[in-house]
Write the structure tokens for this entry.
Amino acid sequence: MSLLIIIFLEIVNKQIILSRFQRGVSMAATQEPLEQDDVADGAHNELHDAIIVGAGAAGVGVAIALGHAGVENFLLIDRREVGSSFEAWPDETRFITPSFPSNSIGMLDLNSIAVGVSPAFSMRVEHPTGSEFAKHLQDLASFFELPLQENTDVKSIEKKGDVFHVVTDVGTFYSSNVIWAAGEYQYPQMRGFTGSELCRHTSTVPSYSQLEGDDFLIIGGYESGFDAAYHLAKRGCKVHLFDKDSPWNEQSSDPSISLSTFSFERMRDPTFEENVKLFPQTPIRSVTLNDGIYEVTTADFQTYQSKQQPLLASGFDGSHRFVSDFFEQREDGFPVLSDRDESTIVPGMFLAGPAVRHGSLIFCFIFKYRQRFGIVAETIASSIGLPTDEFIDAYRSWGMYLDDLSCCGQECLTC
Ligand SMILES: Cc1cc2nc3c(=O)[nH]c(=O)nc-3n(C[C@H](O)[C@H](O)[C@H](O)COP(=O)(O)OP(=O)(O)OC[C@H]3O[C@@H](n4cnc5c(N)ncnc54)[C@H](O)[C@@H]3O)c2cc1C
């Protein structure tokens, strides 16, 4: 049989399996009420099978997977609205990973968070902006009829017996499982050297075109720092870009370690070459502010001055610290996870999204961490007695059920 026919049959097979999945995921009547004694004042007394905290790419993706696995009684909570971290990106910032409508040949669009979905196909954009992707997530939430609880800030979580009490600013919600998917973007890293609080984190910049001034000091030379440098250089600003390492010289093909192709292309833009000066292997010692002048001092005591507030592109602390009591910690501070992405000390607490780590594998892009959505969804579905064989086959065939990490190194996360 020719390869083309095999691929065609594979696609047909996938479509048959997918057509069995319900598009709608509703709050069905399987919700069990809690005993009145267990319910706090102002609480919502249904017991959910799962509560997902965070309606970003990870939360929406794992919610769709739960629905596909047959779990109906769950809730997706967000402190703002679906996709709000993406909505907050600087106007000019675009996805570095390209989208392409490759689903028809069985290869899921790199930026897709759900089986059968292609942002390239639906948006006709290769590198979406944050607000375009936020809209895409909102469209998915609406298409899949996800049970949403927006404008609800999770303040704390407690587990009493077998039940998680998810305490929010609008009351307490109850669940047998919690999937923590609150992301990184809203938890920027502001520490690292004396005076770092004087800097402005790139995640708080609404638009690079609105920043006043024509010379900028940027601390951090990975994707966000390069993105800032590129847009400022395009405007004709002079930029000094410092990094303690040298991501632009890394030889790894893993974009979690070296710069993306998109950024390498941008480095070759004439305005970037003309206006951006790169300082590799240059840790920062301090930032000071005197008489309206910011001074950045490097570890080897070189100083650089600017009237503009230095931009900090040093990454994110991540929201997993918020739930650190529920997980053992790895040496690097990330949660220790079971092979189901569940806590090893608190059953029923799961992690989804870019903070997922297994050994040296870093799942920090959509095309990486989506590979674990099927694992989490299947674990919860089978814990409530749902059959999952068909779900596993379909998700595995789309690269959304990665359960064998043994053959994966930095260069390969899709076995
Ligand atoms: C500049 C930049 C460019 C990037 N480019 C790419 C790219 O090209 N490709 C790629 O794959 N990835 C890219 N990423 C990474 C990508 O943005 C993240 O992988 C993604 O946002 C993570 O999704 P998430 O759902 O985990 O987190 P988020 O999108 O941050 O969603 C988390 C949600 O949780 C909510 N939340 C947080 N705390 C609480 C709480 N206490 N209570 C209730 N709700 C809460 C937030 O409101 C938010 O909506 C980029 C990141 C940045 C910063």
Remarks:
- The chain has two domains: 15-186+317-407, 196-312.
